[in-house]
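dude i think i finally got it to work??
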Amino acid sequence: MRNITIRQPKDESGTPCISSLGSDLMLCDCIISSESGGCIMAYGNIGLLAGAESNAGTVEVTRCVLSCSEGTGIGIHEKASPLVNRCTIENCKQAGIDVARAAAPIVTGNTVRNCIAGIYVYEGGSGTFTDNEISHTSFSGVYVTTEAAPPAVTQAPPCFRHNKVFGNPYGFFVTQSATVLIEDNDVCQNERGIAIGTCGDKTVVRGNNVHHQKGSGIVVHQLGSSPLIEANNVHHNGYSGIIIEGGDAPVIRANSVHHNLRAGIRLEKDEPALIEHNLVVGNCGGIDCIVSCPHAILRDNDVAADNETVAPQVRAAVARRVCTFAETNVNYLPQYWWHCRTCRPDKEGTGCCVVCRELCHAGHDLSER
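look at this
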């Protein structure tokens, strides 16, 4: 692999290290590190920079390792549509990949980690993002927002499929009327799985496996949100499976919501939500309305709150974030628990509770019992 190290930006304006200003750029098997404003920038036209438009060249970045201590790993702007394939993008002070202003890249098979956001889409950015691993960011694995997109931009919404998103404060965070398709992803071990703020009417969250977050699996949390949340498998999360904290008219349809440590589906405000055809079983509560919700429509849901699976004393300990033994002492009560093969490889009959799983046994080799 070729090593490329850049210690200063190209000019005083902070122009990134390597740019494709309408010309061809192909990088393969490189190690690129930057101590300046960014590693790579791809532009489809240069009207914004040079006052004249030009067509994009071919831009491809394959099997490269990129890091940027002061900026973004790869910035894709101005109608660019590069291929970013099988790269490792890590340790960036800003986003690993940022996409804006009608850019529509193909981003596939990459590992993005240890950035503020793994993939940041804003100002009318689009593209297809598949088979990436996005982890250990300081804000969100994927962050999608509009932030004053140009009025003339009518791109198809960004599409995220078959990605694994884990170990982040948020797996996905969508806000400011952005529209996005989030489909068939594995979203796990984040603080919160998928958070929908104000989003576009055509936002779809479908077919995802959303599990083992410390908090809730899917959250709709601002007014003006009307996403379709459909056919997701939402399970084994540390709080509720799906929470509606706000929203104009979200549709929650045909999801399997099970074995979450609070309610399967929780409504915290009276919103005109449509909740139908969901399977809600084995949670510490079925479909819970925290306030009166006369405007919500609930129909044809299969609900069974498994109150015998988790005892009330156990739920009290989980709410206080203490070991369940503090409530049950030597009298074992029904609860979810895990055998830790890291700490007790030879003692299958011993284990840890859900609180200790997160606080004492984080990162250990655990098997649910």
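Residues 1-16, 45-56 have pLDDT under 50 and may be disordered.
im so relieved honestly
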